[in-house]
């Protein structure tokens, strides 16, 4: 592979990474705006699909769930 081809491949990979990062950021913001009831409904729906098809959603939802738990700990009884 010549240098011109390598630069093209590198540049294309960089553009793809940026586009994926932007897409995931938008998805995270959208999911963060869901109500608890909407999140339960969404989780019920994605449970019907294989992990390979829903891993990104599951990962974002679990991260957001942990962030909410850490920022709003339950009150001691």
Structure description:
- It is a single chain.
- This protein is mainly alpha-helical.
- It has one domain.
- Helices cover 81% and strands 0% of the residues.
- The chain is built from three helices and no strands.
- The chain has helices spanning 3-32, 36-46, 51-71.
- Helix 1 packs across helix 3 (51-71).
- The longest helix is centred in the N-terminal third of the chain and has 30 residues, at 3-32.
Q: Kindly name the structural category.
A: mainly alpha
Rg estimate, integer Å? 18 Å
- How far from one another are the termini? 66 Å
Please state roughly what percent of the residues sit in beta strands, choosing from under 5%, 5-15%, 15-25%, 25-35%, 35-45% or over 45%: under 5%
Helix and strand string, N-terminal first? HHH
**Tally of distinct domains:** 1
Major β-sheet annotation? none
Mean pLDDT: 93
Total count of strands: 0
Separate helix tally: 3
What would the principal axes of the Cα set say about the shape? elongated
Low-confidence stretches: none
Helicity level = over 70%
Key features of this structure:
mainly alpha; 77 residues; 0% strand; single chain; 81% helix
Please sum up the structure shown.
By secondary structure, the protein is mainly alpha-helical.
SSE topology sketch:
Elements: H1 3-32, H2 36-46, H3 51-71
């Amino acid at each position: 592979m010549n240098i011109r081809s390598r630069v093209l491949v590198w540049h294309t990979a960089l553009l793809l990474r940026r586009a994926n990062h932007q897409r995931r950021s938008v998805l995270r913001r959208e999911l963060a705006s869901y109500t608890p009831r909407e999140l339960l409904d969404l989780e019920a729906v994605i449970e019907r699909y294989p992990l390979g098809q829903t891993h990104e959603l599951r990962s974002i939802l679990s991260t957001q769930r942990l962030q909410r738990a850490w920022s709003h700990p339950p009150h001691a009884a």
